[in-house]
Amino acid sequence: MAHHDFTMPMSEAQVRALRVDDTVTLNGTLYGIRDATQIHLFDRGRRTRFDLAGHAVIHTAPNVRKVAKSAAHPVGYAPLCIGTTTSDRMERFTRPLMQQCGVRLVIGKGGLREASQAAFDELGGAYLAIIGGTAALETTWVEAIEDVDLDELNPESLWKFRVRGFGPLLVAMDSHGGSLYSRVRDAARARRAAVLKRLGVG
Amino acid sequence: MKVDLQQVEEAAKELYIRALKLLPPDVKQGFDRLAQSESDAGAKRMLGTMVRNIKVAEDTDNLLCQDTGIPIYNVTIGRGVEVDGVALKEAIRKGCARSTREYSFRSSIVHPTTRHNAQDSTGRGVPVIHVDFSEAPETLEIEMLPKGSGSENNSWLKMAIPAEGVDAIKTFVVDCVLEAGGKTCPPTIVGVGVGGTADLCMHLAKIAATRPLGSRCEDPEGAALETALTGAVNALGVGPQGLGGDSTAFAVHVETAATHITMNPVAVNMQCHSARRARATFTPAGMQYGY
Hints:
Chain A is an alpha/beta fold. Chain A has 6 helices and 9 strands; from the N terminus they run βαβαβββαβαβαββα.
């Protein structure tokens, strides 16, 4: 259970060193994506001018305030409340994110499934769990919204955040087949029969 | 009592932002209770972070969660209240839209096929407005629920049959909690509707999921199910965020209604740990905010 501090972007070797139960704190650039962002990128052939290679993406759609452009707010958006959404809906986009864009880390809540696990194992990636519903705290780790692309999808734009001390996040899926979600799910399903018996079912 | 619609519009606006920022005391107490009984160290740490987030939201005057939810307003009209119902609904809708624009929070509402976002949290049939009546003299109550989508996406209805009995209800609830895993942002309030028609059953599940913690089903049969099912789902080990532990649900809440001789419907709707709600009560003495 090691702790890792990363300044993005990162190499495949750095990601491969991560194991489930490790913790990670991120600094520097973090990209924000969501359902619509990925539907447009991977189903509708849209392109982004951002280079995501070696970077981390977070499943989000932030609350932002429109402000005058300044050094602190280069694209005229101030962060208001930035949190994390349920990752499971975006399961099928993990592989194209990694293969076509070079993404190394996916940050989300609730976990991803087998296809994502296979992509992490083959291509060198990991899933970092954040605690869903703790957006007020998460927002204190975001320094600025540095840039934004595909903004007609707002709030599901492709966001470029600058973060400091973003974490600790829990490595919940690694590149060696390890997944805390499948471990917990399998154990819970194994308890099903005993739980139903306790309820007098059968 | 004659209802001042301008005041209703202001309240509808304030209720949305209040609900997004302030967690009700019963939910805060729910966290304390879970933290005391949680045996998994990692789960305990996660509960601690959730509690810390409530404090950060209060200290920084920020939203608890980024999900501004689907806005739901539950209106309860007491006896002797004079109000134009159409105008009341319009005032709530206006207040909801103004809240989104004036406080600049995220509009999470889109058209279901075009996915167009009007950027003011409203659309066809949204905000959801339910109107009901009560015995309370000269009282109008408006409850506001920003219902998060992570938990709402985990909603199920099963039209079980009489021969499957109560076992079908119990099995369905356990299987829904297993299926939801960490997707609903556990610890949750698991809302269960039992009986009625398909639509009433689902509505009962939502009422159950959004009831204050500590409240009980008025039907003793439903209350007994609540106790049994709360213990059962917390023995599954799903835990906070689906990452393991005892704290899978604050509680299972059940609401019941009579049903047809051929039917045995059961519905599940869940509420995430950010179990947000706010309330405004109008009486001849004035208007008061609460939970």
